[in-house]
Amino acid sequence: MAAEWLRRGVRGCCAGLRRAGPVLLIATGVVLGLMLLDRAMAVRAWQVRCDDPVLQRAVSRRLQEMAPLGFVAGMPGRVAERLRRLEPDIDTIEVERRLPHLLRIRAEVRRPVALWSGGDGRVMLVDGAGVPYRPLRRGELQDLPLLRTRDRGCLPRLTALLQRVRRLDPRRLAGMSELIVRDDGQLRINLSRGAQWRLPLDGAAPRRVERIMELLDEPRWRHGHWRVDARQRDRWYLRAGYGDRAVI
User: Is 117 left (phi over 0), alpha (psi -120 to 50) or beta?
Assistant: First the structure.
């Protein structure tokens, strides 16, 4: 009985293989064909254009590390996604595939507008949208205002404020060293030569900053360095670096 059962099993397996054989051969052929196509159409060269030579070299180096790029891995969308993830300094990137073996890449560098210290010991670069995108590298120098706040949600408002100052008076922006947000929502802006502005960080902050700049451009105040306290809506205080308080 056992031998008869075994013979039936063997015959059944053979019949199944005969029926499935053509399907298996076709599937194997398709897989081998795709593998050969992937190798035959692999990326072997690339052209990188960038407005920043440092980023251009970094993108080229990443492509060398990613190689070999087969037909699937070398698809423009996949390459762009990987490069964005590996190089946070990329602002925009366009990848074009020229068959059979060439990639053309156009990238633009992300320009930081400020630095951010959140109290964890790191200093991050922040872009114009208020997004911190990478830590400041050892030995890297960036002459940018430093945003000091533990609340990451404040960064878009602070960078928008900086952008507004840049449009109105770039020289004034160059003198801003720190923007410090206290836990109670008050903003302190430290400028060069002991000048300092204090104001609430609310929806009216951009207009307050604009008004402070207009006020300090008046002949009476133009040549001094002032500590401006604008935390009260109806009364502002101006005090020279080491002088008496004046009420405005």
Answer: beta
What's at 170, amino acid-wise?
Answer: P
Segment 193-233, tens digit of pLDDT: 889 999 999 999 999 999 999 999 999 888 888 999 999 88
Give dist(CA 75, CA 69) in Å, integer. 9
114: which 2 tokens?
A: 């400020």
200-209 own/partner pairs: CB under 8 Å, 24+ apart: 200/231, 201/154, 201/157, 201/158, 205/157, 205/161, 206/160, 206/161, 206/164, 209/161, 209/164, 209/165
Q: State residue 186's pLDDT score.
A: 94
- pLDDT tens string 152-174: 999 999 999 999 999 999 988 88
Return phi, psi of residue 196, to 5°: -155, 140
- Tens of pLDDT, residue by residue over 123-141, are 999 999 999 999 998 888 8
